[in-house]
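Dear U.,

For the methods section draft, I wanted the exact inputs and outputs in one place so we can describe them consistently. I've listed the two proteins in the order they'll appear in the manuscript figures. Please don't edit the token lines directly; just add comments below if something needs changing.

First protein:
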Amino acid sequence: MLKRIIALSVIFSCSWVAWAVLSAVTSMRTSELSESNRGDVSQLWGSEHTQLAPVVSIAWWEDVRRPLTDDEKAAYVAKKQEQENAEAAAKGRAPRVYVPMPEELYTLSREQKQQAVGLDSTDLRADLVVDHRKKGLLWFSTYSVGFASRYSFTNPREETVDVRVSVPFPSPSAVYDNMKLELDGGPLAEEQVQAKTEAGQMVALLRLPPKTSKAFRFGYQSRGLDRWSYRFAAGTEVTKVDNLHAVVRTSFDAIDFPPGSISPDRKTPRPAGGYELTWEKDSLVSGLEIGMLMPRRLNPGPLAAALSLHAPVSLFFFFFVMFMLQALRDIRMHPMNYFFLAASFFSFNLLFAYLVDHLTLPLSFAIASVVSMLLVVSYMRLVVGARFAVFAAGTSQIVYQVLFGVAHFFEGYTGLTITVGAILTLAVVMHATGGLDWEELFRKKSAATVAPTITP
């Protein structure tokens, strides 16, 4: 009996190593292709979108009175002294030493001044529609976005100013359709407005009369990846936002906000599915953002690696149950029988890891489960009989391989499922073997040389 236990331990350890290698190979295949695949998806579909708030600045000209420098003062005094000498010589008198008046030591110059102007109001809306794309062993959370916004600002000066409105693009690697930056609230004269595209931003140039308010609109349709966000200032700068009204409408119910974002004031379900999220602030001072993480689908690559990594747990429980049933029913199984059972379990993970490249995840899981169960049941039928193969081995495999595998489809419940399964297995085996004389069992097994006849 001791030799059999050692043999089973060796078989189990070798199986564990095989699963560890398969898990490492699957993880390597996933990681090697993930970055290149992500780059390919970003080029085809677009990358993360981070829309920054517009920057409005005004410029004007004003006369500036500044003192003369020492060199300018010396040149000015020398010129005046030369004029005095010439005038004195013409009049036949001795020249006087020229001493400038204080107001002569200043000069007037016309300089352009600039000033950033805050937004009086921010009204924006983003419609997010998720559309997952699969490449290799990974699903990518791609989405389409329709962005529309309206902003207003005021010229605080008492004179007409030149206004520059610049709105950064949310992503350098995205494609934009129907992008518009236009004035609202009454058009200005055609020659006073100029809209153009500069490096990474849309720019509008106009002239604005004193103490005048103006509004403008900015919008586009585009596509992105994983995350959409709107920031009120670049970086982590804290800024003040007045009269904010923001609406984000989603096509999905799995709402998840990125770290460093502001939670909405209202969350309303939409009749067609998804939510309408609303942010309303009269005066917000923050360095945070409004954002949304796209829902993720279960990725075949990481799932296949996790199933392989946890497969020894399933095999351990299966071996444990088979060993207990062997003791209770006086069945004699050779370690080679356990070796082929372990190989049948391994075939599930091997087949699943390569099927998911070509088939859907549920279909791959179903095919791999059926193939592995057929191997186990058909083999155990030859070893101990059809009844034991179907009702004992088959049922145990469904519980410890198939159901444990299904638990990996539900993120966060895998550990709990395995724990509950382990406790229930322990409880059933303890009650089933409570009246078993283990000393007599081991003594009989050690003395036995011929396996008893098995009645299916």
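Second protein (the one for the lower panel):
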Amino acid sequence: MTRTVVRGGLVVTAAEEVHADVLVENGRVEALATPDSQQWTADRVIDATGKYVVPGGVDAHTHMEFPFGGTASSDTFETGTKAAAWGGTTTIIDFAVQSKGAALREGLDAWHAKADGRCAIDYAFHMIVSDVNESTLKEMDGLVGEGVTSFKLFMAYPGVFYSDDGQILRAMQRAGDNGGLIMMHAENGIAIDVLVQQALERGQADPRYHGEVRKALLEAEATHRAIKLAQVAGAPLYVVHVSAREAVAELTRARSEGLPVFGETCPQYLFLSTDNLAEPGFEGAKYVCSTPLRPKEHQAALWHGLRANDLQVVSTDHCPFCFTGQKELGRGDFSKIPNGMPGVENRMDLLHQAVVDGHLTRRRWIEIACATPARMFGLYPKKGTIAPGSDADLVIYDPHAEQTVSAATHHMNVDYSAYEGRRLTGRVETVLSRGEPVITAREFTGRDGHGAYTPRGTCQYLN
């Protein structure tokens, strides 16, 4: 195994910023030392002078090869993990899906088969539970024991993934007992379906109406209900893709009461809005995702939530569908537009731009993108930090490089960028995954199958 030294950079973790050299051996961080205090010899020396050395990003919410709305997300585990690496992310946690009537194990095995031997970076799985019954509740215990320690439930999508309050309560009780973490898509799907039908009957079929029917109040109501059910069950709760200020308020209130309730938001809610959904023609379809984009005034509450730690994680909910041939399934009926947006390659850069713009500190950038997701989902300190013994997942990041985001230059397998033409300051230069160069001076040097499946422990905020 090659011995590597990363010299002269500013090492930024959630805990500290220090000018240090980083010694990598056998795929792990061996030591850190102030520059020139140790004259380490190495097979490979990477000069990080004037750059940041940050932990590889942990994206705890991706959907590669995800079946939805009669099609499937356009990134495979091969293309999606390469794109993630280009964007400075070295670990993804994807979602294995239980089909109605099938065992959890069947879904998990299917996702292992999709990913095995094809990933450029390390990966793990959450489990989507779409059929809560005695059998699946028992299976949850076994999955926690083997490192699948989080379970996603949906209050949305009746007839597809939807669970009712009784099923949710039972799953939460089980997680409370076995140490698992329930992840919740919190939207009142039953009420939303009524509003969808009424909008279509009025002839309101354009993409903008997707945002109008999925009301912020129905996100807030479901968030409140999920919190109360978790409280009754005596279980922790992680609410995914929080987009509305009213939902943030529910999380803030619960946390002020000392409840183990956590929240995630995504770059699209921080940087995009209903203005994008209302773009002329059918362009707004590019921005259809659920929870939906909100009016711009919601963004301030999300940024405040991130600074105040009422929101702890920024993940992407990366679920790309090509505009041509996939998003177009919803021409004339917004309810048939596949829900999801590309973003796994953009997250670290967009959040660095938030540092440049004064929304976040450098350490908070690393906290919400690397350290906290690793702690939340039982991967820390193997992932999410730079410390002796941690995996050598390192990103040499040029904070001064300028780039313009474009589908013409991105590596995601999708025909548009949600951030087309946006100018950003900061760019990934070199990426190591367990000490192996995946991106070297803006060239892909990784390989399919380098990425290893990584079983997880339980949420480290509950121990």
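Candidate sentences for the figure legend, describing the second protein: The domain at 56-376 is CATH 3.20.20.140 (TIM Barrel). The chain has a mean pLDDT of 97.

Thanks,
Y.
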